[in-house]
Amino acid sequence: MNPIDGTLDSQSNPAAVAGNTQPEPVIRNPLFQNPIARRVLKERIFYGAILAATVLALGFLFYLLFSIGSQGWEHLSWDFFTNFPSRFPRKAGFKSAIYGTAWLGGLTLFFSVSLGVGAALYLQELSNRNRFTNWIEISIATLAGVPSIIYGMLGLGIFVRFMGLGRSVLAGALTLSLLIIPVIIIASREALKSVPDNMRMAAFALGATKWQTVRDHVLPAAVPGIATGVILAMARAMGEAAPLILLGALTYVAFVPESPMDSFTAMPIQIFNWTSRPQEAFHNLASTGIIVLLGFLMICNSLAIVIRMRWGRKP
Amino acid sequence: MTSQLWAKISPWQRWRERMVVRGLAFTAMVSIFTTAAIIFILGEESFQFFTQVSVKEFFFTTTWAPLFEPRFFGIWPLINGTLIIAVGSIVFSLPVGLGIAIYTSEYATGWWQKVLKPVLEILAGIPSVVYGFFALTEVTPFLQKIFPNIEVFNALSASIVIAIMILPTIASICDDSLRAIPKAVRDGAYALGTRKSEVTLHIVVPAALSGILASFILAFSRAIGETMAVTLAAGATPQLTLNPLVGVQAMTAYIAQVSLGDVAHGTVEYQSIFAVGLVLFVMTLGMNLLSQFIVKRYARKYE
Predict the structure, then answer these.
(1) Three-state DSSP class for B153?
(2) Contact A211 B21 (CB under 8 A)
């Protein structure tokens, strides 16, 4: 406990005040006219309440993981990874969803990193504040709050219909890229901001141009921070189902995409499909799928934590 | 003999440099294009929709039955569904989230504090389809024990899982804004003889109120835009009701329902999802702008 946590006896203890020769206590704030026992009780109740809130949240987390784990554990076999989805829960597997998510992940990573990090470099290092960058900042702030399902409608309008990509992996990956580009820009700018200015000054002093400074010194120093942000954003994109449903990602796919133009399914879509069926057996399959998806996301997240701890800058 | 160090930058290099900067400026413009494209696509298809359905019917009638003849396009049941779920989730998550934030920022110490935040962040990283599954297979059966006449698809179940989902948003923004209150403010209060809970409740929380309010609005906007949990748990019966124990349809759930079915491009059902999407976009945008405004306008600066 904090040493100054308690109160001075002469102020708060009525007996001490009464025994004193001076007749009146100095402070009249109602806070101090409570007897000390009641204030201590209030303190305890308050502490109990916030502790209960925290324990409740942790409890929910562990119960959620436990209930899904116990439901889905029995289906988790090699067959689950190598079978295609099926009408019969016994034979159904996750193969096309895993491949679909892998395709989506690779393409999304490529588009979102090249566009997101590029934009962050421009905004943070290579531009001056003017009306143009102001507009960009406003639109990034706007986009960061747009619900993911709206991105699905955007993808449906632009990539599926206007550009004629159809319901392909490419259209899905482009949509997911647009969804996470604002997140990547914000994280990358934070990483670039934390590179100390001495580094830039030293490079300029040796005659490097702006771009040389950024490319050879600032960017390499910011890579751990950028990588952490990118991994977290990717984990978010790979768990998204709503935009892909809008694009018309298929729910029954018994093949593996072989080019970016093939139609596809993805892990969250397949889980959604199994969950929305009434039979119990498919719910168990869905929980097995969730174990795989969460396992994949946990690996991503721990990777991000490792990068932050190993290379992260100490504040 | 001239040193290479003093050599001027060649025109070729200067040109290359300029090209790189232009290229990167183009990548930054993608954000502007995206925003413009969202507004254009929602606006264009909604315009098509409103040539067939009057604005008056859309906003001033109260029956939503777009998929079967006779069709009715009064959006209020969908807005009602969205709001009842979002308000319900905020009612659960605001006190709990604020409590967690106070605990992590004021009370927890040492390694426990360091571990607690990332562990709670896991809740934010779980995909929403997983929350939908959890609502359907765990929360609804549990609620059925308490309220025997609850429907299989109901707003309450969706509210509860969305509350869990947005807890980390509220907790982490509140935590940041509580931490931003300098130690001197707390020490001043301690010096006057207040206890820790009194300092927290009467001094620190009021000082951080702008951040708390912003987190609340941001979380509300996330709850409105949430799709998968709402689609799976709350059902697909658009109706005007304040009863959380019956099924409702949220705006996002309607959009998902239509796109799961086989609706042809150019039909009025197809266009209706864009009109609903436009309403959703305007609502979330308004909330986000409001929260940014509150942070800018009311945040106190302590130097």
Answers:
(1) coil
(2) yes
What average pLDDT does range A35-41 have in this prediction?
82
- For residues B35 and B126, membership in a common domain is answered with no
CATH number of A91's domain: 1.10.3720.10
A127 and A193 inside one domain: yes
Q: How far is B130 from chain A (nearest CA, A)?
A: 7
- Is B158 at the interface with chain A, CB within 8 A? no
Q: Is A25 left (phi over 0), alpha (psi -120 to 50) or beta?
A: beta
Structural domain span for residue A303:
78-311
Kindly state whether residues B198 and B237 are assigned to the same domain.
yes
Partners of A56 on chain B (C-beta within 8 Å) are 96
Residue B60 lies in a domain: no
Distance to chain B for A258, nearest Cα, Å: 24
pTM: 0.86
Question: Of A74, A104, A120, which marks where a domain is finished?
Answer: A74
What is the token pair recorded at A234? 């990717």
- CB of B244 closer than 8 Å to CB of B155: yes
Q: Cβ A301–B194 below 8 Å, yes or no? A: no
What is the number of structural domains in chain A? 2
A2 falls within a domain:
no
CATH of the domain at B132: 1.10.3720.10
A280, two tokens: 């119990």
From chain B, the residues in CB contact with A214 under 8 A are none
Q: What angle do CA B1, B7, B11 make, to 5 degrees?
A: 140
Q: Does residue A1 fall inside a structural domain?
A: no
A20 and A107 assigned to the same domain: no
The total number of structural domains in chain B stands at 2
A15 at the B interface (CB within 8 A)? Answer: no
Nearest-Cα distance to chain B for A28, in Å, is 12
Between CA A197 and CA B182 the distance in angstroms is: 27
Q: What is the number of alpha carbons within 13 Å of residue B63 lying toward its C-beta? A: 8
The first and second tokens of residue A287, run together, are 């929980």
Residue B214 counted as domain residue: yes
Q: Could you tell me which chain B residue has the CA closest to the CA of A135?
A: B32
* Residue A307: exposure state from Cβ atoms within 10 A (0-12, 13-18, ≥19): middle
Q: pLDDT band for position A8 (50/70/90)?
A: very low
| Domain membership of residue B170 as a residue range | 72-298
- What would the pLDDT profile of B218-255 be if each residue is shown by its tens digit? 999 999 999 998 988 888 888 888 888 888 899 999 99
H helix intervals, chain B: 11-52, 55-60, 76-102, 110-125, 128-134, 140-146, 155-179, 183-191, 196-198, 205-207, 209-225, 228-234, 251-260, 268-298
Q: For residue A278, say if its preceding peptide bond is cis, omega within 30 degrees of 0.
A: no
Predicted confidence at residue B193, as pLDDT, reads 84
What is the distance, to the nearest Å, from the Cα of residue B112 to the centroid of all Cα atoms in its chain?
Answer: 29
| pLDDT at residue A28 tops 80 | no
Instruction: State ipTM.
Output: 0.89
- Inspect the interface and report whether the beta carbons of B38 and A57 lie closer than 8 Å: no
Of A50, A74, A98, the one marking the end of a domain is: A74
